[in-house]
């Protein structure tokens, strides 16, 4: 398909040119519209669902290089094995960029869905005065564009889109590195009762959550995430075996 399809619920679909020629997108205004919107994108089948949250612009080169291996050696092969839906923030930075590049490099066929607040994006022919606006990651297959003008406005939507996609199938959120918004992402996974895997040793928010498990952090929001009964902390090993094992277990169990 040569166009990015943006449609508002209860309005006719309109085509919109983009520099991502093979992606489909839909704009939604209300959470209750999600099942119909996803069906409109051809994503109506219930599947295991993997949510990726974490570092964007704050990833150092050292972490980026290490995490590139993690995505290519474990995360993307597992998504392909389970033919899972993969959901992230959809912009061309950090873990979202790593996910898109790894899927492309390995010839992945699983759906990769970016969920992004429309006011934070650089889109063709749409003027945006948001100073930190970002482009969409070009290797994603689908986008759900949601209301919002600030980073983090997409956070509850990521959780709700993943729930609608899984539709009863197993799902898990993997938290890697990250800043303040990543804590919000973790809280939203807790809200929908989605298991949360925190990659210890990946830096910043992930490591703060793990430190809270040891009683070494006083930040109440971090402590609340650490108390989540469905949280699993997994070390960033050189062979990534434990991370892969934890993800596979969650995607294959009810």
From TrEMBL:
It comes from the Bacteria. Residues 47-238 form the LSDAT prokaryote domain. This is LSDAT prokaryote domain-containing protein. It comes from Floridaenema evergladense BLCC-F167.
